[in-house]
């Protein structure tokens, strides 16, 4: 059973969110806070008394300490709760996922979307295998936000503090570490083939040896596999069942 905290500086919105959360049988307890400072104080008090907190559902635009600043502070906790942003604004999605939020809900909150966010939180909290979810990564493109689906990504390549997502339609630069993306998509068929490359197994259509190296054909691209990762990659691709490569 989950224990969560709902945070919003608009009382009607906070009451509605808390009400919907309390209707979910997977949630044991819902605490509330009507500003970021109060939420931070409540979480510090919970840590001090050993009280468990599995997740925080928080608004972004709040007076004083806003949701993004609160999330950054929470990220410094020894065992931070998982974050779900609940906001009326869709232009903060990139920053939210940089902070490793597990979901991003738009107001007015639909009961089915909230239930999906709780399902994700429950899967993380219990360590249970999560049902396949069509995850998306928000990408800023000239003042627009495009959502790149997980299933469309052939491979991800580390570029300093960024990751370049390669798809059949093009590539997109996202401010996120490759390690964070690997954690986020753990169990979704993505495998590390190089210290700077993460590949979607569903898009791999060939593995071959050439000049003493192992190469993968991913979509229309050919990628090298590092010696360090060769054994793991071969075992994953050859011994484990996987879906037929998707088309783009």
Question: Your description of this structure?
Answer:
- By secondary structure, the chain is an alpha/beta fold.
- The protein contains 7 helices and 15 strands.
- The protein has helices at residues 11-22, 36-49, 67-74, 93-98, 111-126, 178-184, 227-239; strands at residues 2-7, 27-33, 55-58, 82-87, 103-106, 136-141, 144-149, 153-159, 162-167, 171-174, 190-194, 197-200, 204-210, 213-218, 221-225.
- The strands form 4 sheets. Strands 2-1-3-4-5 form a 5-stranded parallel sheet. Strands 10-9-8-12-11 form a 5-stranded antiparallel sheet. It has a 3-stranded antiparallel sheet with strand order 13-14-15.
- Helix 2 (36-49) runs parallel beside helix 3.
- Mean pLDDT is 86; it is low at 240-248.
Largest sheet: 5 strands, parallel
The 3D shape can be described as: elongated
The low-pLDDT segments are 240-248
Helical fraction equals 25-40%
Give me the number of helical elements: 7
Number of β-strand runs: 15
Termini distance?
Answer: 40 Å
What are the secondary-structure elements, in order, as H or E? EHEHEHEHEHEEEEEHEEEEEH
Rg (CA only): 20 Å
Mean pLDDT: 86
Report the structural category.
alpha/beta
State the strand order across the main sheet: 2-1-3-4-5
What share of residues are in beta strands?
A: 25-35%
